[in-house]
Amino acid sequence: MDLHTFLITIHLIGVALGVGGATFGGILYLKALKDSKIDPMEGEWLSVIFTTLRVGLVIVVLSGFGFFIEYRMTGQEEHLLDPRLWAKLTIILILVSNALLIQMRKMPMWLGEGLSITSWYGALALGIMRDADYSYWTFLIFYAVVVFVMIGILSIIKRLYLGKWII
Amino acid sequence: MTQTLSILLSVHIIIGIIGTIASYATLLWLFKRKIPIRLLKISSITAFAAYIIAWITGGYYYVVYYGSNVKPIIKDGPNPWAHSIIMETKEHIFLFLPLLAFVILLVVWLKGDNLQENRSLRNALALVILITLMISVSMALGGIVISGSAR
Question: The whole model's pTM is what?
Answer without folding.
Answer: 0.91
